Amino acid sequence: MSDSSDDTGSSSAPAKPNPAAKLALLRSRRLEARKANSQATREEVARRAIDPRAAARAARDIQAAQESLSKQREESSRPRVVDPSTATISHINDRNALYNAALERAYGKHTKTTKENLERGTAI
Q1: b/e map of 83-115 (b: 16 or more CB within 10 Å)?
Q2: pLDDT tens-digit profile of 24-80?
Q3: Residue-by-residue DSSP string for 38-100
Q4: What's the pTM?
Q5: Quick one: 62 and 102 in the same domain?
Q6: Does 11 map to a domain?
Q7: End-to-end CA distance of the chain
Q8: Does residue 42 sit in the same domain as residue 70?
């Protein structure tokens, strides 16, 4: 009553892979992937190579556009309300100027004497 397949002595469980062989296989695959990536990178760099004449032409175009834009700005600049050369600067940008103006409206009357003392140099 015994099967002939049981007599061969083979088991139905799969054999465990050799860890060293598996590691060697993974390393070889990684090496192949690195080589392929390196080759692809070299091809991409060669494909994107820029002709020096084209780069010079692009630089001239950019410079011409900037000059045109600066000329337009000079021609269409709106007049300034306050001359920046004569005004007292108490801000670092326009947003800060608005904030300082709001603080001055809210607390200006309370800080007037302190500001005057600081300007005279008699503040304690």
Answers
A1: eeeeeeeeeeeeeeeeeeeeeeeeeeeeeeeee
A2: 999 999 999 999 999 988 888 888 887 788 888 989 999 999 999 988 888 877 766
A3: HHHHHHHHHHTPPPHHHHHHHHHHHHHHHHHHHHHHHHHPPPPSS-TTTSPP--SSHHHHHHH
A4: 0.29
A5: no
A6: no
A7: 113
A8: yes
